[in-house]
Amino acid sequence: MKVFFLLAFACLGALWAQSAPVPAASPAAMPDLPDDSVVAIFGDGTKFTMGDFKRVYSAMPPANQAMALRNREQWLHQWELLRRLTKLAEEEKLDQESPYKESLAYNRMTMLAQAEVNSVMNKIVIEPADIVKYYESNQPKYTVVRVKAIYIGFNDDPTASGAIKGKKPLTEAEAKAKAAKLLAAIKGGADFVKLVKDNSDDETSREKDGDFATLHSTDNIPDAFRAAVFALKKGDVTEALKQPNGFYILRAEDVTVRPLSEVRDDIYNDLKNARSDQWLRGMDHDAQVQIVNPAFIAGKPTTAKQ
């Protein structure tokens, strides 16, 4: 059982806590030693340097990294145990037996495929002019709209006992009619803030003269809101926007575009991801497979001949 947990630390990380619990502490720092400094000598005489540790460390999952730094003596012991067990397995040629052979091959393919994708990503060059061009061509994407709102709630449940501002909830039809009346008044020049204070059922925004939100195109908002809000110019008002429990009338108080300096990194990443995705789609398109037994992809078991 002890050996199981020792292996679990090196391979799975999370299970190590069961055999060697460590109280919560600040993250341990990487030892400040030269890469060629020998930090340990294993049983077979192999020297293990600081550089060796850094290379192994970089390949470990974050949780394992934290544990390795927190208890470096324990980690070195477990690493030597893994080395010895791996050597024994290779001497027995277990790496050439199923299912270990196939598992190793699968993991190798997966790792190298990801390495190739990373290599392509690292080689992609995004010129400053590309960033500027993208920014100028996608201004709506970086538009920011600050809105005030009037909210008219409704509830068509005849058994509903809740009330808004001490009044019986409106039905959907009544709320829609009220919203239409308010919208007509706004278009006729009525004071929007006064209408908010007299009619809005959203207490939070009503107490702030209707100030509702500052919206970005990337925000997680209903599609109806997105299409309507980002078509507004300063001072414009949306039509009544229906939501599950009410209608919103939104007015654009301010419409601005985020400066290039704020979104440059986002654009850089977007362009890099788009180009790597284009490359990967091309690779996917060129991956040709000839199916010679339709029963395989149809999920039908092949009947063995008698």
Instruction: Show unreliable segments.
Output: 1-23
Rg = 32 Å
What structural class do the secondary elements suggest?
alpha+beta
Order of helices and strands: HHEEHHHHHEHHHEHEEHH
At the first level of CATH, the class of the domain at 136-257 is: Alpha Beta
Counting H and I runs of at least 4 residues, what is the number of helices? 13
Helix content: 40-55%
Task: State the CATH topology of the domain at 136-257.
Answer: Chitinase A, domain 3
Strand content: 5-15%
What does this entry look like structurally?
The protein is built from 13 helices and six strands. With 306 residues, the chain is of the alpha+beta class. Among the domains are: 2-92, no CATH class; 136-257, Chitinase A, domain 3 (Roll), CATH 3.10.50.40. A hairpin with a 2-residue loop joins strand 5 and strand 6 (246-257). Helix 1 crosses helix 5, helix 4 (62-70) packs across helix 5 (72-91) and helix 7 (128-137) packs across helix 12.
Features:
single chain; 306 residues; Chitinase A, domain 3; 13 helices; 50% helix
